[in-house]
Fold this protein.
Amino acid sequence: MKAWIAGVKDEFGKTVVFSETRGKAKSIALTTDVCEDADYCDIEVHRLPQADHCYKNGKTEMDWNDPADRLILVRDFGFYCEYVDPDKCKHCCAREFCEEYQIKI
């Protein structure tokens, strides 16, 4: 299964989805929080082969709320919260790898 980074053109949020093809990745992206209100044509997907190893049977998206997935997203792929709040970041499992947090503290 291939990993794809998906998001809406010119918007902050991104997610990582798993599918065999670009078109299927866009369709899966439509079901995510990041892209749920987007038009199919406004969704951009790009291969992220470095995340292929994160796929587990039946998994369609990396889960930002799962500490293990969040750690990988932040540490390995540079993800961060749109609004960095140092007080909330103190409790985040990925804070030591978050460049935005390091800048704010």
